[in-house]
Specification:
Strand order of the largest sheet: 5-4-3-6-7-9-8
Distance between the termini: 60 Å
Radius of gyration: 17 Å
Number of helices: 8
Mean pLDDT: 94
Order of helices and strands: HHEEHEHEHEEHHEHEE
Helix content: 25-40%
Largest sheet: 7 strands, mixed
Oligomer: single chain
Strand content: 15-25%
């Protein structure tokens, strides 16, 4: 009976990851629950670029963390980190806390609002997968996303980069001198996203990983 129920849920259009209760990401099983953003393979480009900038015990923020997939992957790749994950969606925060366990802190808040004060001006790397789908394009997404994932995890505003601009404006307050932010974006939006960070005195570069079909902007503060 349970198998039949699972099959019926999938045939009804529910994402396979919700039916199973987990998503595969960077070699890990990440627990997900209905409504919470499902980690995509393309976010591996963020993990790879962030991991290359980190050492054990560095201070890290997984911003717009969703289920905490980036945090879990970085902890595995780098080792112990002084890590805080944050998301505005309380359902995502609950799942991220389960996935990360006692290896980091998970907080609920809008972007940087809930980060601990001790992180201000001291963060080595901020890793981000913020929503970047333009509002009008959400309706064209696969039904598994548009009908099942929370809108707050998908909608990036009219051009998709509202959150990118807000993050660019606020990140400098939290990073240490020489610290970096790595943020996922589509290939077509990468130049505009990089320009948003450059406008706030970040040195930027665009990184592409064809193996996972992922693109990110790496934005660094002067040392």
């Amino acid at each position: 009976m349970r198998l039949r129920s699972l099959v019926q849920r999938r045939l009804g259009g529910e994402p396979l990851e919700y039916v199973l209760g987990w998503a595969a990401f960077d070699g890990h099983r990440i627990r997900v629950t209905p409504g919470v953003f499902v980690p995509r393979a393309r976010t591996g480009v963020v993990v790879a670029q962030a991991a290359a900038l980190l050492h054990r015990y560095d201070r890290v923020v997984d911003l717009c963390c969703g289920a905490g997939a980036i945090a879990v992957a970085l902890l595995e790749r780098v080792g112990a980190l002084d890590l805080v994950a944050s998301d505005v969606d309380p359902d995502a925060v609950d799942v991220a806390a389960e996935n990360i366990g006692d290896r980091g802190i998970v907080v609920a808040g809008d972007l940087f609002a809930a980060l601990p004060a001790r992180f201000r001006g001291t963060v080595d790397v901020i890793a981000v997968n913020a929503p970047y789908v333009p509002t009008d394009a959400v309706a064209t997404m696969p039904t598994e996303a548009r009908d099942h994932e929370h809108r707050v995890a998908l909608d990036g505003g009219p051009d998709g980069l509202d959150l990118h601009r807000r993050i660019a404006a606020g990140a400098g307050e939290w990073l240490r001198p020489g610290g970096s932010l790595v943020i996922e974006v589509s290939e077509l939006q990468a130049d505009a996203s990089a320009a948003a960070f450059a406008a706030h005195d970040f040195a930027t570069r665009i990184e592409r990983d064809d193996a996972v079909d992922g693109t990110c902007v790496v934005a660094s503060l002067p040392a």
